[in-house]
Amino acid sequence: MSKALTRTEFNFPGQKSVYHGKVRDVYNINDEKLVMVATDRISAFDVVLPKGIPYKGQMLNQIAAKFLDATTDICPNWKLATPDPMVTVGVMCQGFPIEMIVRGYLCGSAWRAYKSGVREICGIRLPEGMRENERFPHPIITPTTKAELGMHDEDISKEEILKQGLATPEEYELLEKYTLALFERGTRIAAERGLILVDTKYEFGKHNGTIYLMDEIHTPDSSRYFYSEGYEERFEKELPQKQLSKEFVREWLMENGFQGKEGQQVPEMTDEIVKSISERYMELYEHITGETFVKADTDNLAERIENNVTNYLV
What we know:
Strand content: 25-35%
Radius of gyration: 19 Å
Low-confidence stretches: none
Number of helices: 8
Distance between the termini: 34 Å
Structural class: alpha+beta
Largest sheet: 8 strands, antiparallel
Helix content: 25-40%
Order of helices and strands: EEEEEHEEEEHEEEEHHEEEHEHHH
Mean pLDDT: 93
Oligomer: single chain
């Protein structure tokens, strides 16, 4: 079976520190650049699962790089290069402590809240009489705070963001403008692939006083996609939508009694399960990009990454 990269401990030229996130390992180079390694770790319910998924990091990194390149006319972004299939190098930004969630349809946590009677999310009033997976009259932005590792993100309104000084009014206006324009571009690209971009998240930061788009965009880990074909019929019949996201991983965990709650055990991840998740991610990659996925050599993953990044940095 192909190898998976679940841990990195590199020492790149000019390295000052490293941050190990749930999925990505981020190396600080001279307080100027970030080397973001998309590992093969996979998380669900805020828990990193015990086994890595071969090629997952490569797929997510390449999808994000493709969408970053496809949106440079909308706003500046942090990407400088992808020296390895699993690595993006970019400019170091001071991140805003919020995530800009944008929703085109009523589903997921927003639907669960709506179904329980909630009619206002992040300060936005929702119309009465909506149904699950129904399209909003226009996309809505429902920001969250960026939580520390192991903690849950919390919904926050525009008013609260400004009140807490997490962004100035001018900055927030630009964040909203960029968010809606990026979502519109992502929606159009998805439509060309027979997909609906349902919701997604963007992260922004500042570099030399300019707001930059950071991190990944429009990947199945940060976004939810429906298939266009059959959407209307499924919606009218109140059937679950066929979707492209890592929701299938959460569903497998729930079917096996795990939702990240205290005392619950992650079900056994057999080689068969790991292989099936990897293949599903490949399906996502090919649908989202419209290209065939080409597997990189996984024999000496860490050595390959270290060589490629070092050669780029020097």
